[in-house]
Every structure is written in structure tokens, then in C-alpha cells.
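[job 4471] stage=fold_predict status=RUNNING
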Amino acid sequence: MENFGLLNLENKEYFERELMSLISSLIDWKIDNSIVRRSNDRHEIIEIAPLPKSGQRLNDSIRYILNTIDRNINFSSNKFMGFPDAGNSLAGLAAAIIEVFLQQNLINKDICSPMGSEIEAEVIIWLRQILGYSFDDKIYDVTKLGGAVTTGGVMSNTYALMAAKRKYPNKRIVILPDNIGHYSLSYATEWLNLGVEVIYCKTEKYKINQSELSKLLQKYGENVLFIGVYACDSMTSTCEDLEGIYKIVNNYSTDIWLHADACHGFVLVFSEHYKNRIEYLKYFDSCTMDPHKVLWIPYTLSIILMKNTDDFASLSRSNALIMDDPLSFGKTTPFIGSKSYDSLKLWMVMKTLGTQKIGEMVESRIENAKKFYNILSENNAFIMANTDILFSVIFQYTPRLDISINQMNTLNRKIYDKMLLDGKFYFHGFEINVNGVNRFVLRYNSGNINITEVELEDAVKYIEKIGKEVSNEQN
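[job 4471] inference complete, writing C-alpha cells
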């Protein structure tokens, strides 16, 4: 029989050898802390290779990927300190491999994913339970789960806005925080074309200004459909005063959808020390979570939960061809037809670590951020722009305090650009309003708790070194 590159008994041993060798090389790359990416590898255009007509051997294709692997960003490197998406959980990585080989489609339970549908239901219920939402331990219809696993934060936030509009079809005002807003909430309002108008509420110290929120509620009255807040925001990891927001909104009206984007902050619920920060999430109409950001899980995995399971059920649809089954997830996931088994990654992490160990790991991550803040605070070459430290530290390098804001912003942009070219370390960089002034800041936010204090110190020395180089070039 001609070999068309499909797995069978004849090529089983060959494929095993290739796969084991490949996995070994990938593990070596994941734990390589020497760089984040190949240096001088930024390109203005994408050049398309010729269409492959004759093909090549599998190991030639694998060799090409491995020979160019440093062109990828190593989120697991101890020198990658800009985002929390470390993706280095043993259980999560193992589950990602299992998911690919199992080839389950969660659109339908009986004929496509009998066990996978049960696993997905479990993780949704576990998260409802730990968050404080009501839950059942026996599920007869997935529309009553009160949540869904989605592709990412944009999709999860989109579901929340859709449910709000179904519940309050005649309302049109959406209130979101200014300055600290993440694109996922604003994209949801733009793409859905629901005829809503977004009003941005002023923030103070990266939280909603509650007196300004009260004014907006008075101004727009019964037209207010949806209020979205962050727990924690994606820039500074500042956790919103959820209790204060809830009480203001609830005292004004109980017919406003209150939503929390907790894609970064929901993990605080695992920590005995920090869970009080998000205790009031259980009173919000909906909450989004991104385990791929904060639970060391390979991409992608996001979750939307709704307090009232009937609100979630309002999004469901049925189709006799493949989804006419009360336990099939295809009816509860708008915009998603064929559905990957991503929930297995979260299930494996929670089953393997348990909630107590996850809480300890979350606290270790916060301690690392505080260590980094303390290292910066002892160095006069840096100024920090946030003080309520959970996961993030935003900062600027300054050779002296008498330079203008514009000069400082230009300097830090150039530091960021040079860092991207070097490929040795990575901190995120963006513009944010700090006490009424727009600043271009660098941001530490690492989910990788393998990072040591020595490596944090080395990273600061690196930023200071290239800061001096760039500063001398400007002068």
C-alpha cells in the first residue's frame, strides 16, 4: 500500500521514534533560559514561501521547525517576564498532547466526545463552586451549567454581552473603565453590532472612580445595559473594588448587567491569603476567566460563567443534525461549531495539583512580583507607576529625574525596541495614563514561578545597561 503519511501499523515504530525525539527537543527548548527569542529577527513584511508541490519527508519538516525554533517566543524561559502565559505546567503540557491524540469534538456528546463532555462539565462546575456561584453535581442538560469553555477572553466577554442584551433588549449603554481597558471587552461591543454605545468611566489609581460611575448612572438612567470592570486589569493587575462597584450599581438598579473580566485575577480565589480581594465576584452577573494566562496551561483556554444559569441558557440553540442532545456542548457555544477538547488541560492541572497547591503557586507568583518591585525601589534609575502589587509592576528607566516626560517616554520606547531586537529578556511595553500624565512604561508580569531572585536582579541590570546605552546615544 502506498504511504500517504497516515498513521498505521507499518509506520508505528518509525513515528514513535520521530515523535519521541521531537518531544525531547521541544522540552529542551522549553527549559532553555539563555534567551527569549532569536536576536535581530524582527521583520517589516511576511515573505511567503513557494507552494510545496512535491513534498518532503516528515523528519525534514520536523528538522526545519527545530532548526528555526529560536524564532518562536519562549514564554517558559525564565527571562520572559512580560506576560503570565508561561505554559509550562507538566499536567497542562501532558493534557495538550493527550488532547491532540484523542481527537474529540465536543460539539456532540454521544457520537463525538462521551468522556470529554463529562470532563468539560466538571471543570465548569468546579469553577462555579470555588467562585461561590450556585452549582449542581448532577447535570441533565448542559444549558443549565451556567458557563462555557471558549477560545479566549474576547469570545468569553462576547458571550457575557450577548446574554446581557438578550435579557435587556431595549437598553443600549455599556459602561467600561477608561485607561486600563482591555481590547476583549471593547471588541465584543464592536463586533456584535448590537446597537450599543460604549461610555468610558474615569479611573483613579487604575480603578473605576466611583463618584464618576454614580454620575453616569444618573445621566443614562434606565438605558444602562452593562457595566464591565476588571479583576484584575491586564496592565497593572490592580484589582477593582468589586464590593464598592456592586453596591453602587445594586443600590441604583437591579436591572443592569454587572460583569467582571477576571481573566487575570480569578486565580486569587485559590489563595487563602488573597481570595478576599475577589469575594464579591459571586454577586456579579457574569465573570470571565483565562486559565491559559494564569494557570500555566498551553494555549488556548478561556471560560465564561454566569450567576443565573437561565441567563446562560438564553444563548443556547439546537440542531437535529448533530446537537439535538441535552448533553451536547455545541448548542451552548455561539460562533463555535466543531469544538476542541481544551478543557482537558484545566482538568488535568486541577486534578494533579489540587486547589491548595494552586493557591500556594499563585502566592509565590505574587511574592516574585513584590521582590521585583523591591529590587527596583532600591535603584534610583527606576520609577514605579503602581503600588498595589499583585502580579504586575509597571516602571520607567530614567538616567536622571530632571528629564521631561516626553524624553523619558522616548527613552523607554527605545529601550523596549532594543530589548525586542536583542531577544535576551522580555518585559511588556505600552502607554498608560499615570496620575494624569501619559507615560510609556515597561511591565513585569510573569507567571513563571521558576524565576529566581538572582534572575530578577539580572533583568533589572540588563534594563539599566541598555538604558544607559540608549541614553548615551540620545545625548
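[job 4471] summary: The domain at 95-353 is CATH 3.40.640.10 (Aspartate Aminotransferase; domain 2).
[job 4471] exit 0
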